[in-house]
Write a structure and sequence with these properties.
Elements: H1 4-21, E1 30-34, H2 40-48, E2 53-56, H3 59-68, E3 75-78, H4 87-93, E4 96-100, H5 103-112, E5 120-125, H6 142-150, E6 155-161, H7 170-186, E7 193-195, H8 202-207, E8 212-215, H9 217-220
Helix pairs in contact: 4-5
Bound molecules: pyridoxal-5'-phosphate.
Keywords: Pyridoxal phosphate
Protein name: Pyridoxal phosphate homeostasis protein
Family: Belongs to the pyridoxal phosphate-binding protein YggS/PROSC family.
């Protein structure tokens, strides 16, 4: 069985190889370790292997791990669907939110971001797979949403996030990620972030301009939801 440290080394070399294949300079792609369903000890092991950024989908689970890991200087990214009644805790306990897809949520995050903390980094989740996915704003709604979020005081709009319909077909992966990159470029805003690519499609995402890849399974192994 491979350890988390071995897995991290393997993923880092996949990222490097994809950067080189795309003729992108080294270090332009950041690794977000997606630790949902995994215990705090797994995050400690990843930290020991140099990982600082962790992505969580479920608020209560994330808050529990944060309380166990206060001794480590971790950077927390919220990447799951957001209900209105969760925004205050997210605004208080995270550094990034990748999954904003409507203005009401962004307004609440801005209002509820505590004074004294830096602006909350935001990615707008965009749905480039149409009916296949319910999360994410439509490409048609994106320009107005981005302009409105960009004007909120306690948020820093960084870019876009997408989860295309899963496929092993490289051409289909490339087409979906390229569409996200085009949408980003079509916005007349100073954005520096494309959060796209997971364990099975990070090579395609990096070829199409990803700056964050969100990797769970390839680092921590398969998730077991039955354990609760
Ligand atoms: C679970 C999850 C990931 C990680 O997926 P893997 O296939 O395990 O790498 C990435 N992004 C989001 C939004 C997720 O929910």
């Amino acid at each position: 069985m491979s350890t988390i440290a071995d897995n991290i080394a393997q993923v880092r070399s996949r990222i490097r190889a994809a950067e080189q294949a795309a003729q992108r300079t080294g270090q332009s792609v950041h690794l977000l370790a997606v630790s949902k369903t995994k215990p705090a000890q797994a995050l400690r092991e990843a930290y020991a292997a140099g990982v600082r950024d962790f992505g969580e989908n479920y608020l209560q689970e994330a808050l529990g791990k944060q309380a166990e890991l206060t001794d480590l200087p971790l950077i927390w990214h919220f990447i799951g669907p957001i209900q209105s009644n969760k925004t205050r805790a997210i605004a208080e306990h995270f550094d990034w939110v990748h999954s904003v897809d409507r203005l009401k949520i962004a307004q609440r995050l801005s209002e509820q971001r505590p004074a004294g903390l830096p602006p909350l980094n935001i990615c707008i989740q965009v749905n480039v797979s149409g009916e296949a996915s319910k999360s994410g704003c439509t490409p048609a709604d994106l320009p107005a949403l981005a302009a409105a979020i960009g004007a909120l005081p306690n948020l820093k709009l960084r870019g876009l996030m997408a989860i295309p319909e899963p496929t092993e077909d490289r051409a289909a992966q490339d087409a979906a990620f390229a569409a996200v990159q085009r949408l980003q470029a079509s916005l007349d805003l100073p954005l520096d972030t494309l959060s796209m690519g997971m364990s099975h499609d990070l090579e395609s995402a990096i070829a199409q301009g990803a700056t964050w890849v969100r990797i769970g399974t390839a680092l921590f192994g398969a998730r077991d939801y039955s354990a609760g």
